[in-house]
Structure to design on (568 residues):
């Protein structure tokens, strides 16, 4: 069988107009990317003997994938023998000759660039990419069609897949774009999400990341956070089900995806901060099935449960990064509170100011059951840095300063029934630590340039009896 | 034409199971303490009431309230008892 010549055109391309009469006269198979109506009108306008075929669903265009039309391709069965995109008179005549056709291109310029193929239209390209992803098995999530008369945002609220804020509709096109943020296979398993043991594949996480408002570059951080949250020692099941207000907090180190580390670091206004933690929580809700007031039994919750992500500030940081590579640290934390000390200029005094806030986590008399995260503001960190205190040194000193005599901690002391049972206290002067060990106080440097403040987060029930901080390298998920 | 979105959920349907036969009396009932403070106070009361009604009671506990009961705890309850009362307290 002789090679076949096929020409892809579209109706609104002047270069296509210029070569179509010759292609038509030579009996070349012409296929249009335009609609039947547009194609019919073009044929009439040019006085063609044959109306071009329609490239239904752009299947042929997707297969040949030209940058520009007219694209004249010589096919020998499935094999491409040659192609010309745009008008290149001599080459077109030669290509046609190989298929036994004679093209009369007299009067046309020697060369003219073509028009962009419809498949290069960003919207069409996204649709085709999504279609290819579905065909290749990269997308496997069920497709849900929101009716024409439904408002898509209202429909998503109604289906119970949001956190109460609007979400970005996770169209296949957006999800495919999101998946470009990682080299991982979309069907790779990221973790098994409690409470209902949902399988969080890269695809499912990407869908929820789209909904949260993430950009593709944020996806590896979200994937690392989801993976970390699913580690048994994090005890995400209990964290979802607890009456305690804690939620997962994502703390990034040495990442380069625009996570705010400076002014208003724990607040609103930065896309990465607002969306990465939110994506994790949406995975918990949608893949895991943990719904507030149903599986999530929090008595109060806290605003950070919408999602909280921030990063350690490198600028002015007196301490080296605790990690060798970009890393996500995940902790189960309640809302933060400020510690104001605008007078201390020496590390010992400043540590003494920070300690009571750490000791009051959960309740001053509750001991050994809680961790804490101390976010040291740059102006406070400078005091420690100038005195040469390392992160470990500060941690050790805070551990010592959060130790109190047992007699102050027993039930009933000071009129409060909370505390240690009297039968466990043989010596009222015996020192009792707040934290199980110094490394149960996590320290992160973050915040704006001005403000002699630090922030303290209390944890949920910590350590082996509860949730331990977990880490995951971001590059694993890049 | 509507908008097509991808399902963000785990796409699972909860399995429906028939209710178990009502147990006893007499029945062997497990009282599972989830290890919250004062949970034992509540369970002690419950145990008295159940025994008054002619039931056997097996006391058992999770290692920590923060995590789901380990498989061996669940298996033991399933093998030894007709019913379980999981007691939360705060």
């Amino acid at each position: 069988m002789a090679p076949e010549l096929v020409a892809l055109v579209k109706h609104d391309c002047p270069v296509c107009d210029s070569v179509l009469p010759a292609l038509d006269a030579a009996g070349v198979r012409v296929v249009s990317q335009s609609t039947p109506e547009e194609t019919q009108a073009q044929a009439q306008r040019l006085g063609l003997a044959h109306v071009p075929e329609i490239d239904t669903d752009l299947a042929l265009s997707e297969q040949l994938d030209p940058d520009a039309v007219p694209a004249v391709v010589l096919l020998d069965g499935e094999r491409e023998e040659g192609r010309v995109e745009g008008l290149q008179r001599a080459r077109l005549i030669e290509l046609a000759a190989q298929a036994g056709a004679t093209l009369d291109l007299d009067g046309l310029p020697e060369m003219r660039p073509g028009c962009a193929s419809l498949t290069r239209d960003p919207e069409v390209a996204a649709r085709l990419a999504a279609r290819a992803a579905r065909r290749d098995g990269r997308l496997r999530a069920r497709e849900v069609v929101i009716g024409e008369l439904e408002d898509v945002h209202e429909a998503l609220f109604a289906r119970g897949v949001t956190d109460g804020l609007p979400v970005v509709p996770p169209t296949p096109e957006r999800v495919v774009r999101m998946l470009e943020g990682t080299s991982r296979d979309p069907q790779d398993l990221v973790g098994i999400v409690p409470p209902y043991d949902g399988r969080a594949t890269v695809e499912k996480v990407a869908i929820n990341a789209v909904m949260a408002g993430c950009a593709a570059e944020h996806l590896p951080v979200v994937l690392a956070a989801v993976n970390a949250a699913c580690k048994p020692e994090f005890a995400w099941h209990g964290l979802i089900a607890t009456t305690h207000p804690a939620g997962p907090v994502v703390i990034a180190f040495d990442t380069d995806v625009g996570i705010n580390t400076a002014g208003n670091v724990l607040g609103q206004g930065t896309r990465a901060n607002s969306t990465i933690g939110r994506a994790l929580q949406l995975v918990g809700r949608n893949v895991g099935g943990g719904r507030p007031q149903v599986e999530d039994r929090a008595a109060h919750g806290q605003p950070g449960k919408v999602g909280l992500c921030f990063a350690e500030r490198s600028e002015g940081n007196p301490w080296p990064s605790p990690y060798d590579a970009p890393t996500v640290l995940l902790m189960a934390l309640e809302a933060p509170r400020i510690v104001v000390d605008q007078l201390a200029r020496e590390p010992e005094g400043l540590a003494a100011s920070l300690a009571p806030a750490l000791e009051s986590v959960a309740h001053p008399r509750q001991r050994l059951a809680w961790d804490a995260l101390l976010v040291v503001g740059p102006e406070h960190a400078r005091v420690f840095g100038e005195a040469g205190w390392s992160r470990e040194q500060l941690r050790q000193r805070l551990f010592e300063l959060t130790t109190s005599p047992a007699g102050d901690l027993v039930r009933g002391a000071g009129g409060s029934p909370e505390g240690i049972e009297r039968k466990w206290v043989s010596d009222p002067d015996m020192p009792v630590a707040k934290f199980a060990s110094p490394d149960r106080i996590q320290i992160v440097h973050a915040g704006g340039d001005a403000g002699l403040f630090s922030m303290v987060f209390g944890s949920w029930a910590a350590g082996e009896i509860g949730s331990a901080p977990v880490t995951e390298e971001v590059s694993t998920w890049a | 034409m509507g908008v097509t979105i991808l399902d963000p959920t785990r796409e699972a349907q909860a399995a429906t199971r028939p209710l178990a036969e009502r147990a006893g009396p007499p029945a062997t009932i497990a009282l599972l303490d989830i290890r919250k403070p004062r949970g034992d106070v509540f369970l002690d009361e419950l145990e008295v009431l159940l025994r008054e009604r002619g039931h056997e009671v097996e006391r058992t506990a999770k290692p920590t309230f923060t995590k789901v009961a380990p498989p061996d705890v669940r298996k033991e309850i399933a093998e030894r008892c007709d019913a379980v009362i999981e007691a939360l307290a705060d």
